Amino acid sequence: MTGIMSLSSSGHGPAPGGAGTFAAMFMPSPVPIASDPSDGGKALACYHCGEPCGEETVTDEGHAFCCTGCQMVYRIIRDNGLEDFYTISEKPGFALARREKADFSYLDDPETRDRLLLFRQGNTARVLFRLPQIHCASCVWLLEKLYRLHPGIVQSRVQFNRRELSVVFRLDLLSLRGLVELLDRIGYRPAIHLADVEKDHMPGVQRRLIYQLGVAGFAFGNIMLFSFPEYLGMDASREEGFARWFGYLNLALALPVFFFSATDYFRSAWAGIRVREINMDVPISLGIIALFAQSTYDVVTQTGPGYFDSLAGLLFFMLTGKWFQQKSFDRLSFERDYKSYFPVSATLEDGSTLSLHQLAPGHRITVRHQELVPADGILLEGDARVDYSFVTGESEPVGVGPGEKIYAGGRQTGPRITLQITHSVRQSYLTQLWNEQAFQTQDRGRASRIARIMGTWFTWVVMAIALATLIFWWPRDASRAVYAFTSVLIIACPCAIALAIPFIMGNGVRLLGRIHAYVRHPQVLENLAAVRTLVLDKTGTITLAEQSEMRWEGVELEEGDRQAISALARQSMHPLSRTLSGALEPAPRALRVEDFGEMPGKGIEGRVAGVHWRLGRWDGRLTGHGSPTRVDVEKDGRPLGGFVFRPCYRPELTSVMSALPGDLDLHLVSGDQPVDTAFLSDLVGGEDRLHFRQQPADKLRFVENAQKMGTPVAMIGDGLNDAGALKQSDVGIVVTENLNNFTPASDMILAAGSFGRLPDIFTLSRRLVRHVFIAYGLALIYNTVGLSWAVQGQLSPVIAAVLMPASSVTIVLYAWVSTWSEAARLRFPLSPS
Amino acid sequence: MEILILLIAISLLVAIGFLAAFIWATRSGQFDDDQTPAMRILNDNPAKAKSE
Asked: Domain span at residue A389?
């Protein structure tokens, strides 16, 4: 017989009786559930972090603190005259009490230290930290006042949107370790990972484009001024020789535009031609060169004023489009690999630290609570409960017995363990994935496919028209033939076309940011619109990462039994035990547990009111990957049944799946054992679309094979185990509960709360591509009108000066109106949140 | 009309001055971060009362 108990998860009050299911919160880190403010009557909010004060409330100078940690930070801040920290923003601090202590002794190693320092001269050094905790104006204020906290700190600057702090300090007064510990003490623990010591530091903001844009804008304005007499037909100026001087001045102003602002277009066009590919920049470069050559000829021979105003104007518009497209989400990193997650060093058995590069098979290392296992190894001693959530998405720690393997990437939750390394960091099971082909190939998808096809087609048509014009005029009037030839190239310059993608897709990227879908590059939207195969990961992607459902399967339990189980589970710190004791009604304090024993990797046992109870998995491992976790209950050696923990699917999952475009081919690829196959096959449209027991490399292969069928593939995943498939797919989408958390390299980061928006994202990308084509049509109309003059050899600079900006402005306006109306149709928030 | 030449020269000089200012501003990193300065400017005043 199967009974399902209905229980409340928070640990407050007795559970209502009767049947039903419930969801129990799984907290991966040992964070107790904050006490409910309503049950305390008058709940005090901590002066520092704003969280409700519980039992440990400390009072200092009339302010209440939830813990001594917050009080200590307050004291540091107050003693240095920095109380304004509390007046700038509400709740500026954050809770510290439940954080684990960190050991920063590895920063004393001179090699590690020097790798982290950006710059060092004598005793003055500069270092850059990533501080994900920065969240408000108070943080900025406090962190820029660091010099008041220690005389060794010279200056500190925050870069808010990148969540970075740059500190200049004096090594003779303060060590790097001291600096990091100081930051840690006031609550800002720098994120220092393997990537920080391995890679060259990130290049700063790209300033080149800003210079190019500034120069083009400067030249554009001034050339227009000098062209005014020409626009207004003021022939008087011609007689005085001004026209000639204005022409030379314009030429001088256009030189930096041609030789500096435009160079990236030439370079890109040349790079395309070298690999026998005609991209959009080829006709653009042709147009620019024709413009410049014809204008210079006109000015030097004094046959006309030239088209320098059009040249500078076009470059100004195009560079603006580029700049608009370049803006991305600085705070998020789309390029992370395991190195952004692994620590810098490991602690050897004897307590000394060793940098991760030097870690080799045979080394014995210790891993403390909440520390990461940096390389594959075998457990020598200790109670290992490894949380592989970053690797597999599975939130329940896995029990490992002595002699068993522990894989790199897992996080120990529990007392200190010792293990013997069997593989170096690079050769470990997980990190090997990065040796795959997908990670070796360079980033392909940056150049727009539409623009490439358009560019090829466009170039040939324009060249054909230009040559036909040349051949037609040559026998009649040779000089007019050359003029008409360059005119065709000038007027056909697809500059307005080049604006369509940056503005439409660039705005699309911004709009998606408002629903918390962060896209790496506008090109991703175009790829997404082409996607016809969608591959889903299961755990953490379509299931909730931190919640699971607990059911009782077995004979019906009496109240006394439940209390006994609860009392026994209360004795253990194992996450499953804690969930159990929190979920079951609290046992009376009088209920004593005797002969309590805990077998790592198996379970717990003890005597309650004279009855011997055992909880856990005594016949094998406590949890297996993916199979529903089960805690068996034995009463005096007699099995009663078990508690089964099942993943909890996202509530919006069914509606999302039905709202996705109908032409999408859905597949589910999971590392787990087959579960819920009936439900899942309904979801994706057939059992043959469910693929279980897929290793990380299998997932990558799966995506690769799907791509061989000819359609672009999108992959949605969350963990490092999806990293290969995400990289291989045309669009890799990562779902994350917390944007500050680690996410594998991807094209789009989707906040878990916005999972329900997935169909909208697909719809938007497809509609935007349609608008790009409409914008192309509009630009072609202008081009055709201009061409009708050009082929007759009658294109005057004034016509060009009106027609070309007009087409650019039309495209920008169309891009604006079309993207905003799509956003309104899909009910996107109208202001950034 | 010769005065026009002088005026043009002056206007060009002014324009080049602005271009130089723009390049200097870019070089000194003023376009690198467009968010933090907005937060920074609001913060400074009250602190002075105590410390100085």
From this structure: 343-424
Question: How high is the ipTM of this complex?
Answer: 0.85
Q: Indicate if A55 and A154 belong to the same structural domain.
A: no
Contacts (Cβ under 8 Å, ≥6 apart) of A406? A373, A376, A377, A378, A379, A384, A386, A400, A419
Same domain, A654 and A761: yes
**Mean pLDDT of all residues in B3-29:** 89
Place of tokens 């403010």: A37
* A513 and A661 both lie in a single domain: yes
User: Is any Cβ of chain B less than 8 angstroms from the Cβ of A137?
Assistant: yes
Q: Which of A83, A131, A140 would you mutate first to test chain B, the one with the most B CBs within 10 A?
A: A140
Query: Is B22 an interface residue toward A (CB < 8 Å)?
Result: yes
Rounded CA-CA distance A87/A60 in Å is 17
**Count of A-B CB contacts under 8 Å:** 69
Cβ–Cβ below 8 Å for A204 and B31: no
Q: Are A74 and A158 in the same domain?
A: no
Q: Which residues on chain B are in Cβ contact (under 8 Å) with A166?
A: none
SS (H, E, C) A29-69: CCCCCCCCHHHHCCCCECCCCCCECCCCCEEECCEEECCHH
Q: Which of A77, A155, A210 should one mutate to test binding to chain B, selecting the residue with the greatest count of B CBs within 10 A?
A: A210
Number of domains composing chain A: 5
Is residue A533 in some structural domain?
yes
Q: Is B27 on the interface with A (CB under 8 A)?
A: yes
CA dist., res. A706 & res. A531, Å (int): 11
Element housing A300 (H / E): helix A281-301
Closest alpha carbon within chain A to B14: A222
Question: Consecutive sets of 10 residues in chain A, 833 residues long: mean pLDDT of each?
Answer: 36 34 35 38 67 71 75 78 74 62 78 81 86 80 84 87 86 89 84 71 67 94 86 63 83 94 91 84 89 90 85 90 74 67 80 79 84 85 77 67 82 82 80 66 62 84 90 87 86 82 88 87 88 87 73 81 83 70 73 77 80 74 51 84 80 89 89 79 86 83 88 86 85 82 80 90 94 91 88 81 85 92 87 62
Nearest to A218 among B15, B27, B36 (CB): B15
